[in-house]
Amino acid sequence: MENKNLDMKINTFEALVNYTLHKFCPFAVIIWLILTKFSLTNWEPYVIIGMIVFIDRFSFKVGYSVAYCESRGIDPNDDKTS
Is the model's pTM score more than 0.70? Predict the structure, then answer.
């Protein structure tokens, strides 16, 4: 029984580490690359960073809406209005 609880704790920790790395490391790498290749006084890096944040937030919302529709059996291609 204790071994199962330990496995669950390890899996939870691994999931937390994986989520953190997948969520924040791409931002850190992109921001580091942009800021090292551009000057801090240019406006382009800040626009690029803003667009990346927008893309991330928008893709999450789209993914959530797709999962919601699939779980409720809603077909987005159905032209019926209710």
Answer: no
Report d(CA 46, CA 43) in Å as an integer.
6
Domain contains 50: yes
Q: How many domains is the chain partitioned into structurally?
A: 1
H/E stretch holding 51:
helix 44-72
pLDDT digits (tens, 9 = 90+) for 28-65: 888 888 888 888 788 888 888 888 888 888 887 888 88
DSSP states along 1-59: -HHHHHHHHHHHHHHHHHHHHHHHHHHHHHHHHHHHHS-TT-SHHHHHHHHHHHHHHHH
Q: Is position 80 within any domain?
A: no
Largest CA distance in the chain: 59
The domain of 55 spans: 2-72
Within a domain: residue 44? yes
